[in-house]
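Build the 3D complex.
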Amino acid sequence: MRGAELERAIVDAAPALLGYFVHRVRNAEDAADLVSETLIAAWKSVRRMPRHPEQARMWLFGIARNVLRHHGRTMARRDALTMRLAGALAAAPATDPDKALDIRAAVGALPPEHAELVRLVHWDGFTLEEAAIHLGIPASTARSRHARAKQLLREALAPSPARG
Amino acid sequence: MIDTLDDRLATARSAHAADPAVATALVALADGRAGEARRARHRRIVIPSIAVGTVLAFSGGAAVAALQWGPWDLTEPDLVVARDWTDVTGAYLGSCETRIAANTMPADALALARERLASIDLDTIAPDAEVIAGALTAVGRLDEVGRLIPGAQRSDFDVHHNSAAWPQEWYSDARILQDGLMMAVFADMAGGVLEQHPELMADGISASEETQCTTDPEVR
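Done.
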C-alpha cells in the first residue's frame, strides 16, 4: 500500500477500533482517549503496517490491545477532536440497552481470558483463528476456550427456575 | 438447532460508530491524526535525524568522515549496519558503516529496543526516500534524486531546506543513502518500542548513532 492507501486503511479501521474500546472501558471519555492514542501510535509506526488488508487490521488491533494494556499509565491527550468524540459517544443512544445489559454483565462475569475471546469473536468481528493470533494462543486453545465460554454464558443467562 | 446465544451476543455489540454524530466525530479525529502525521513527515525532511530523537555522534571532522575510516567513538553498539552503495546504474558510490546503541532509553524499553534492532531484516528495508530527498535538497542536488532512487523525480517531493547548505564533501551520495536507511531502521525500532511503551510517545525515544563513510573502495 502507498501512503494514501495506508492513511485510508487507518481511517477506515477507526469505527472498529472505537467498538473495541467501547466494549472494554466504562466511559466515553476513556474510549475516545484510547481511540485517539491508538491512531497516534498507528501513525508513529505506519511504516510497519502490513500491506495485506486483513494483516493490517490485525496489526491495528494489536496496537489497540497494547494501548488498552497501558491505559491509565499515560496522560490522556484530550484535545478538541478527542473531546468531540467523547461527547458524541456519551450522547449516542445505546443499542437495545435492556437486552444488552444482561449479556454484557454475563460476559463481564466470565473469567477474563474467556470474556476477551467472546468480545473479539462476537463484538469485534474476529474469526476464532484471528482471535487466537491476537491473543497469542493456539487456535485449538481458542476453540475449546470459546466453547467453554459459551457454555458458561448459557448457564448464566438461563432463566431462573420458577419458585414453587 | 439455532444457537440463540450468538444472536443475544450480537444484540450487545456496540453500534456507537453507526450513530451519525459519533461517526462524524470519529472521522474528524482520524483525519486530524492523519494530518498531524503528514505534517510530522514534512518536518522530518528538513531535519531528518531530530524527528526520531537520534543523538548523532560523529567522529573526526566533517570532511574526514566522508573520505576515510577513523576510530569509533561508539564502541559497544547494539547494531552495526555496513553497506556498499551504488547508484541506479550499479556504479559504486561508497561504503558506510553505522553503529547504533539504544542506551539512552529508559531501562524498561531498552531490552525491547535491543531485541527489535537485533531482529530487523536489513535486506528488506529500503532507505527512506524522504530523507534522501531532504539531504539532497540540503546539499543542493535534489535534481539528482533519480540517480539514487529508481524512478524518482524532483517533483515527487515537497522538500524545503531553511538553513545553511550542508557540506558536499561530507554528504556523499553513499552517506545520504546510508542516512536514509538508518532512518528506516530507527522508524522500525521506534515503532516496535512505542507499541509496547506508548507512554514514551510524549517525549519520544532516542538512540546513539555513529556513521562513517568512504568513497574510496580501497580505504575499508
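Chain A touches chain B through 55 residues (CB under 8 Å).
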